[in-house]
Design brief:
The protein is an alpha/beta fold. The chain is built from twelve helices and nine strands. Helix 3 links the parallel strand 3 and strand 4.
């Protein structure tokens, strides 16, 4: 399976001069165990901390054989203990899957153990299929995304000690982490703006909505106890290698994994050899190419142009990078090249 890099736009050449952070999925690679995947994520956290990355977030997904980050609060406790300076957080906790009190207690505990280092990024999608979401929540009440504002308000009340039923989240009250709203459309952007919260946009899988959502967020932002002006972070998929050709090879397993996921057949992350042997149809090839739009893939020079153009279009305050490749050393190498040869 091969894809020509010349179909990927060559974009602006501006150096990055904003904080850089990491979004990790704790991938489980073909032929390896979940434990090995989690150990690799821990290694990436340690090494990106040493490189000077600002945050390390993990995403909540369920019923996916290739992703081991199904319990963010548990994984974050481990990552926080394995590091010392990098901020750790959820990218995000999917609020429809959980009772707000449980989230308040879990992240209140994290904040009490690691004060000043914890981010609670909150999403309104389940991060899984409806059957799995129902198994998580055990009731259909609250599963609808329309309930998100009420669920979020309840969560904030637990941190502030203003719950109307007199319930005290312990830990939770007085242990509020930095709260972010995550989104891939305009809905969460508007909620974040009205509450004066920082906003993280999932450009890595919703590139067409990035600029409209950020515009809504900035236009409707109201200063709050959290922020006096908007703060927008953009999450982007990046694979950076020493050459364009090597980056192309490293990206193929990721491309194939998303192709299987879109077809309702989620699998572990295939090896580069398996991905190279896969016979792509024209339709599958087009799917992969369309999904690469807005991503950064190539040598440091190529990635600099691509991320520079993204910064010019979004004026993001921070970039969060997701790098999904088979071997942990290639993941770390990509983060090294971005930090050392792409950033200002």
């Amino acid at each position: 399976m091969t894809l020509a890099l010349d179909v990927i736009p060559r974009l602006g050449a501006a150096l990055l001069d904003v904080p850089l952070s990491v979004l990790d999925l704790a991938p489980v690679e073909a032929g390896r165990t979940a434990g090995e995947g989690l150990a690799a994520t821990t290694e990436v956290a340690r090494r990106t901390e040493a490189l000077g990355y600002h945050r390390f977030w993990v995403a909540e997904h369920h019923n996916m054989p290739g992703i081991a980050s199904s319990a963010p609060s548990v994984l974050l406790a481990h990552l926080a203990a394995a590091t010392s300076t990098i901020r750790i957080g959820s990218g995000g906790v999917m609020l429809p899957n959980h009772a707000p009190l449980v989230v308040a207690e879990q992240f209140g505990t994290l904040h009490a153990l690691h004060p000043g280092r914890v981010d609670l990024g909150i999403g309104r999608a389940p991060g899984t299929d409806q059957a799995t979401a129902l198994a998580l929540r055990r009731t259909r009440e609250g599963l609808n995304a329309d309930s998100f504002p009420q669920e979020l308000a309840a969560l904030l009340r637990y941190f502030r000690g203003t719950d109307s039923a007199g319930i005290t989240a312990t830990p939770g009250l007085g242990e509020q982490p930095d709260i972010w709203l995550l989104g891939s459309s305009g809905f969460s952007a508007q909620v974040a703006a009205l509450l004066g919260l920082p906003f993280a946009f999932a450009h890595h899988f919703s590139a067409a909505n990035t600029e409209p959502a950020l515009a809504l967020y900035r236009e409707q932002f109201r200063p709050s106890e959290h922020l006096d002006k908007p703060y927008a972070m953009v999450a982007v998929a990046v694979v950076c290698a020493d050459t364009d050709e090597r980056a192309e090879e490293l990206a193929l397993p990721r491309d194939l994994a998303f192709l299987h996921l879109a077809g309702g057949r989620p699998q572990a992350l295939p090896t580069p050899e398996e991905a190279a042997r896969y016979p792509l149809s024209d339709r599958e090839r087009q799917f992969i190419l369309s999904r690469r739009e807005g991503q950064a893939l190539g040598s440091p020079e190529t990635v600099r142009r691509q991320l520079g153009e993204l910064m010019e279009r979004t004026d993001a305050d921070e970039l969060m990078i997701n790098t999904l490749v088979y071997d942990v050393e290639d993941r770390v190498r990509s983060f090294e090249l971005v930090k050392e040869k792409v950033a200002a």
